[in-house]
Structures are given as C-alpha cells and as structure tokens.
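Re: [ENG-882] Designed sequences occasionally contain unexpected residues at chain ends

Forwarding the minimal case from QA. Structure tokens:
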C-alpha cells in the first residue's frame, strides 16, 4: 500500500474533456485540498467548475507555484506533464475516457465558442489522440519521481465505489470514499458514444 506523502504533488491529468474536473472535485470531497484560483468559472461545458490554476499553463517557464502544491491536488493537462520539473515527487492520477466521447465533447465546446469543429476529421483526431496517449503513458512510466494511477471516466460512472476504492488505495486509504462517490453525477455524462 502506498501512503500519501505530504510533500508529494498530486497531479490530476488527462486529455481535455476527459473528466479531470470531476476527478479534482472527487479528490477535494475525499480530503485532498485542490490548488485552484477559481479564475475560470463554471459554464455549460463544466457546470460544476474547472478546478484550474492558471499558472500551470505557463509551464515550463513558471514552475514557482509547485512548492505551494505540495500535499495538494492540481490539474495539469497531459501536454504540460512533461514540463513538470524534477526535484518533486508527483502522484499522478491520469484520467482516461473513450476517445470518441472526448472528440464529441470537444466539438460541442468548439461550437459553443463559435469555432469550427470540423478543422480536423474525427478519424484523424482519434489517431492523433491515441498516439499522444501512448507517448504520455511511456513518458510518465519512465519517470522515477512519478507514481501513476490510470483511471477511467467511463468506469467511474459505471462502478463508482470500485473505482473510488482504487483511488483511495493509491493514496494510502485516508480518503472519504462516501463523499467522493457522492460527487459522481451520471447526469453530466452527456457525450456517450
């Protein structure tokens, strides 16, 4: 069993639209304080909020916030994980989701923003995302200072207690599982494929 290290930085990562905000909310409910600035407000795409910390987007140029992140959870998009500096211990919870659902969710968001959702075909986008996920898994797996737990958005929604228990074991068993399960809202699963 791995025990939560108060010096560890808990990194919640995954592709955009994979359920990382829900996972952040679950960890918050379970007892891990999120590092967030609440600058990005809830909207139709994320009605319960984004749980983001804007300075993360400035990696690798700005990593000065990492000392503040020790013992807390912080959302770091997959593309930025490779810019997390050595010298810290990271416990990474990497959210996965069915790729066609991610694409569908991204398209809806682009339409709401007035952007063209058809710049790249679904087939091409799926191929790119699958390749990128493979690279990310290889990168994280090769880092001595990163422990990783891969979780599935789809499995969390269909078997929340089982998945929450696995997350809790990853952190040493101190999380409030009932509170974490209460966050899971199947009503927000709007892009089933």
């Amino acid at each position: 069993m791995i025990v939560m290290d108060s010096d560890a930085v808990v990194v919640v990562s995954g592709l955009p639209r994979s359920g990382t905000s829900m996972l952040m909310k679950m960890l918050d409910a379970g007892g891990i304080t999120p590092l967030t600035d609440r600058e990005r407000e809830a909207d139709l795409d994320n009605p319960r909020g984004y749980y983001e910390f804007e300075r993360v987007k400035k990696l690798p140029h700005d990593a000065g916030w990492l000392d503040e992140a020790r013992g807390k959870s912080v959302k770091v998009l997959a593309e930025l994980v490779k810019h997390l500096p050595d010298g810290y211990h990271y416990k990474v919870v990497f959210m996965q989701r069915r790729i066609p659902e991610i694409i569908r969710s991204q398209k809806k968001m682009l339409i709401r923003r007035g952007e063209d959702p058809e710049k790249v075909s679904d087939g091409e986008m799926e191929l790119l995302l699958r390749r990128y996920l493979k690279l990310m898994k290889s990168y994280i797996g090769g880092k001595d200072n990163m422990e990783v737990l891969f979780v599935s958005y789809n499995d969390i929604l269909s078997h929340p207690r089982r998945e929450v228990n696995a997350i809790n074991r990853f952190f040493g068993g101190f999380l409030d599982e009932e509170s974490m399960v209460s966050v899971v809202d199947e009503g927000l699963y709007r892009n089933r494929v």
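QA comment: On inspection the terminal residues look reasonable. DSSP finds eight helices and four strands in the chain. Proposing we downgrade this to a documentation issue.
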